[in-house]
Queue: 2 jobs
Job 1
Amino acid sequence: MIIGATGGIGSAIARALAPAFDLTLVGRDAAALGRLRGDLGAARALGADVAVELEVAALADDLPDIDVLVYAVGAALPGALVDADVAAWETQWGANVWGFALTLKHLAPRLAKGGRVLVLGARPELSAARGMAAYAASKAAVDGVARVAALELRRQRVSVTVVRPGAVATDLWTPLGGAPKGALAPADVADAVAQALRAEPQPELPIGAGAP
Amino acid sequence: MIIGATGGIGSAIARALAPAFDLTLVGRDAAALGRLRGDLGAARALGADVAVELEVAALADDLPDIDVLVYAVGAALPGALVDADVAAWETQWGANVWGFALTLKHLAPRLAKGGRVLVLGARPELSAARGMAAYAASKAAVDGVARVAALELRRQRVSVTVVRPGAVATDLWTPLGGAPKGALAPADVADAVAQALRAEPQPELPIGAGAP
């Protein structure tokens, strides 16, 4: 199951995993989700806004056990702290943190024994830039949720991995004026994820070294 | 200015700083705040719920420049991720993160040149325990906000320090079944803070070594 499957990194991961997995694609953009499902011959496409608990809870209905859960939803809206906008913070938090926590709440019980959770994190030394307080804080929060989730899901033999790529060239950068030079391609991240899924689980999966 | 001045750590810090500073105490519990003001002969006591933006904004009215801003508000409500309760998450987030961000938004412009911000953080290796996802995540988020705040306030020559004590024996532990053995006394944290304010600013102030 890939949550945020129509995003830059999510769709690249969906493409990379399609040959080997029976994919369930989850996203907010129903049209894009439908197209991606057709392209990849994915088994399922489920529309949901992960910041809305009822929509996340509904994902658990009529689903086979999940072997791999990838959380690739993300939002970044820059703004200095002195101009902090509560709505912009909530958008980022909903996408980056609440969505992940709600996903674990409702879907962790559906994870197969030995299953794996992968979530997109960020490197603090790259994300902590002027204007990025909400983003940096929300990605740091993802680490906290992932750390505790790893402890709580150990009994289920489920592992939790935080994927920490360098800057990746996706639409996330649009409000920031475009991706930095040397940004990774989403396909690079997807390849690393696909490779990691063939290896033993690790708590962290750092990818690339590009600084923004 | 001490925000969260009636809390376990906040009130200890207020006591430790009272002899040397013209104190402004901020808290949600008006009665406790009034008593503390009387005890310490503090210059000002202002009631505010820091999770409510209008109340934080009002703090900036009719205030002299702030030399030292201590953010000591904190909440911890345990719960496994699979039982995650949105209201409990919001309470913790409001106290630990939004309040801090809103404080910076509205009070950073009132900080004196060379001023200092201190915020209570947590050590990830101690806070990331089963049932503590919201707390661990929100304290990790505090780090993210503090890191970016340090960059954004550099022009004002304001420093930001994350104070990371080990476990401290306060009411925060009540919903967790009491403070662990070997927990620090709030006065130990307060002394370390008072001492740090006499020294050069550091990005981190670790105190004690007790594990929960």
Job 2
Amino acid sequence: MTAPRFLVLADRDFGPLTSKTANSIIRYLPERTVAVLDSQLVGKTAQDVLGYGGAIPVVGTMRDGLALKPDAVLIGIAPVGGRLPEQWRTWLAEALDAGCDIWSGLHSFLADDPMLVEKARASGARLLDLRKPPADIPVSSGRAKEVDALVVLTVGTDCNVGKMTAQLQLVKELKARGQRTTFVATGQTGIMIEGWGISVDAVVSDFTAGAAEQLVLQGSKDADIVLVEGQGSINHPGYSGVTLSLLHGSCPDALILCHQASRVHVGDYRPGAWVKIPPLTDYIRWYEDIGSAVHPTKVIGISLNTYDLDDAAAKAAIAKAAKETGLPCTDPVRYDSAPLIDAILAARKGLTK
Amino acid sequence: MTAPRFLVLADRDFGPLTSKTANSIIRYLPERTVAVLDSQLVGKTAQDVLGYGGAIPVVGTMRDGLALKPDAVLIGIAPVGGRLPEQWRTWLAEALDAGCDIWSGLHSFLADDPMLVEKARASGARLLDLRKPPADIPVSSGRAKEVDALVVLTVGTDCNVGKMTAQLQLVKELKARGQRTTFVATGQTGIMIEGWGISVDAVVSDFTAGAAEQLVLQGSKDADIVLVEGQGSINHPGYSGVTLSLLHGSCPDALILCHQASRVHVGDYRPGAWVKIPPLTDYIRWYEDIGSAVHPTKVIGISLNTYDLDDAAAKAAIAKAAKETGLPCTDPVRYDSAPLIDAILAARKGLTK
């Protein structure tokens, strides 16, 4: 992939917990983000809205965004079900007319929309559907257990708690320490950042574990440590099947449990949430018990998302989680990632396959 | 649906554990099965091969099968991954030329094969892809927990142990006892038999639990008891995600654990099986613990598949499973289904939603 500069589309949804894809692009590719489009937050900066991202401006119209000369419009929200809001199609058409590519991680594929396809053909711009899985993914047979690398999967108490972000922080630090480490992207945002991967939640369910298996076999080729991006949660009413496919397909040797300290219900950030998040020790039992039913695995640390707490409350939450679980705990975005890095290196050392 | 008569295609795979779809059609729709095509078993009857199905003949060529005037050729095997063996396409073309419909439960859709589509168009025959999911399945939000009916899901120690068959036996008996009961088909064979349903394993994984939710909402409309066909197993390296989507999407109040007494490994009937089947009590813990993470559920009985054991060994296996688990146990195909029927009626009585 070349390195295009993005206009990030997050209309009426730009915020710390809602515009998940936008936020990760801003966090990991700020130098390639020209602006965010949100008609309700015009004039603010990414820093104002998210607390990071510096001076990246928020614009209110596609015209203002295109004036900043992006190479591509990147769809920065993931609506429930991942389908394209109808009203956005006219904006995308406008961008395509201007010769801008469109990067999308939605379940509904741009390439299935004849109007957009025609616009792209006319201007020579490209439609990139990053969630579209490759053809011919096999059924998993558990072959990922055979790789020599240490495989670490992030698992969560919910969607959108920081499973990808934790791995991106850890891969950076492990590489800085000279460890041959691969980040394996399993969702559209990770693919946008890393340049390869499969959105496992877009794979037909008989083959979802097979997709995870393929990714680990690929990611472990030149690495001693493979960090797999987790998805969903084992008690999420809608997405638990994706979570378990990933747990069994990737055969992780070690798990890092990710949680947002202030979260009360699964899916709290959307209306209608009702499954109460139980103690972290319940999750540890579930993930270890069910994960080990296919390949022995242990939770080796806790990654706590404390973005909405003040420093004292964040530190208290970290100490509480560590005490409750008896495991190393940190917020690897906000504080030192060393407790988790050390746990990974210890697991790598102890690995006998 | 009308009631077509089938030629069942199961070439080189017709047998008690391999040709799963064929076998269920023969068991539940014998009067509509004109023959089975298997070139290696020509001259035998279904009874010879399966131990049931009476005089239904095995033929060795499509011509011999078509001579018996079927209305449709039904694809009676489900290869791993569910894709169509290349060599069968010429047979299907021959059948279409003769005006026969094709019923398929494969993951590869007949309607995506231009040659078959053209043949069908020319003769007026129809291609029925029963595994093709409907469009616009929502993400599950756990709404199935709100239905008034008792929802009973079969769960298994593996694929292909009798999760659909158990429910078909139980629905028959519950209806005979005057209970308003619905069978909810979640796989292609159940759909062929029942006439409606969704193959949940063919649904994109973000929406698989949503498919289960839709089926339970539909199936509970005029019923006091809803029997949901289970899929896969919670420790199956390839299919566990489908299993968990079904467990969380259907919100069962009660579970019936299905096992084949002689099975040693998950997937034993195919090469490469390596996950050893643990004690039934492990499965009970897994299914209750993880199922109840979304909606409270209990295993209320064991359905034991003893088809390959003699009478004494079968009865001993049933007694052993009942003792190990402390739960009612029977082989509802071979023996009286009363222990499971009584457990379901007791659960229905105890249900307070």
